[in-house]
Amino acid sequence: MKRHDIIQAMREKPDIPVLIIGGGINGAGLYRELALQGVAACLVDKGDFMSGASAASSHMIHGGLRYLENGEFRLVKESLAERNRLLKNAPHYVQPLPTTIPLFNWSSGLIAAGFNFLGRRSKPSNRGALLIKAGLSMYDFYTRKQSVMPEHSFTSRHKSLAARPLLNKKIVCTATYYDAWISYPERLGLELILDAETAHPNCKAINYMRADRANGHTVYLTDTLSGEHLSIQPQIVVNATGAWIDFTNAALTRDTQLIGGTKGSHLIIDNDELLTALKGQMIYFENADGRVCIMFPYQGRVLAGSTDIHIKNPDEAICTPEEMAYILESIRNVFPEVRLSEQDVVFRYCGVRPLPHSKASTTGQISRDHNCEIIPATGVIKFPIYALIGGKWTTFRAFSEQVADKVLAQLGIQRQTDTYDIPIGGGLNYPVTDPDRQAWIKTRQADGNLDQTRIETLLNRYGTRSAAFIEYLQAQQDTPLEHNADYSRREIEFIATYERVSRLSDLVLRRTSLAMIGNITIPLLQELAGIIVPILDWSDDEMQVEIDRTIQLLKQHYGMKLKTEERERN
Ligand SMILES: Cc1cc2nc3c(=O)[nH]c(=O)nc-3n(C[C@H](O)[C@H](O)[C@H](O)COP(=O)(O)OP(=O)(O)OC[C@H]3O[C@@H](n4cnc5c(N)ncnc54)[C@H](O)[C@@H]3O)c2cc1C
Does 57 sit in the ligand 1 pocket, CB within 6 Å? Predict the structure, then answer.
């Protein structure tokens, strides 16, 4: 369905059971939950889907080792179970990630952890090997019945430095354990939305549609692309606007103070020496100020972060030069001999964690758990608001399930199915083992004219949804892009036609990782815009506006240095 058809359908049938405001991972997860129970929900986002915190994560699908020292045992247990479920249900995008922790002393942090355990919050302190041992043992204990990944191990200083000669020589040992990472979070979020609509075609999700105000039974929406207005009458409103929750509640006439967001920034670094030093693993380490930071290989680059700074208005969140310097310095503490400079940063991004409002003395001590606050109907607005507070990428399914149960109870509807074992998007029938992959690729090769490497690339990018791509690609003459031969013209056409692209920035930032890995040039933007123009019905002027806007956005918001030709490597 095209965007204007969805809007038309919303105008024709404004009475809906549930309006979900916010198309991040929590809104999208709930949308799928409700669709599968036969509830024709409507999902709106003021920007693109997955353009808030859900696009700004560390890309970890993890139990949350650090949360143990805050005593968040329930959350860690749930996160580990959900991590293992995502490894199974989204194997195309979620994969195991061996993780090494460099340790600089044996016993620090035990007293602070003990205080936290007893509920007396203490500031983060240096975490020594014994504390990490306790945490990792608990990790293994929680997952002992599932044995999806190997247990943790410790390596002596001598052996660690022999394996990683560039590691800081001051270590006393290293610990290695397994978590997971997600390659294309924004795509997985979109797949949830598409899956929901396959399950229940009367569900409607629309991006660039802002919830502005409410009165009586009506919520008033504004199309942020055209400026047009729309009104709908939901029985229940779910406020899944993450760090914007209090702003949205205020717009809906309810003043709340539920969120105390903290912004976090990440860098994408193009530095071969650093990439090699990682040896294909994540390095999970503590910075001088006690903050836990991470770095790991990401599509030929290094993803590193993050910061944790209170912020009031999420629309103002941006990765500052100071944050960039902080992250680079933290890496130098781990790999002092790696030559690293600001010039190596090809992309930087920032998002706001929708953490609960808290009086904790440091941001690291604020709970990472989630909960749903129900704000009852009043004389002014005649529907309840369900506000989704917190919620990690990792735990979205469990959180969505818990909220869906509350919504279903209010609507008087029985749950029909659960999402425990339901694959997501291109994770359906995904060939995980090498022989299965080869067989999958061979079958597609036999059916058409694409070579093995190309089919493999598409399988890695889109999971088994690549079958639909392959069919589309082969239906007509296709050519690689002139300015990035990794993608083809018909591949871009497919994305623009079937994946809710409304702006050029959606394509380069969230449907592909072209921007994130620093592969955007101005000629490439012009080429991409030229391909999607007929699909999005833009005039020549509109196309130029989109190109100019995207260039500004990439430069100002993501710190990209756009060149007129391919980016020169150092
Ligand atoms: C720096 C950082 C690192 C993180 N790392 C990890 C990690 O490694 N692993 C992990 O599991 N989790 C991680 N998280 C947490 C996780 O990313 C977030 O908790 C999660 O994405 C929140 O999703 P959400 O849907 O609640 O919010 P968001 O993704 O922010 O979605 C809210 C949406 O609401 C929309 N919106 C706002 N106002 C309106 C309105 N009036 N009308 C319509 N739409 C509106 C916004 O445009 C936005 O798209 C990290 C978060 C951050 C910020």
Answer: yes
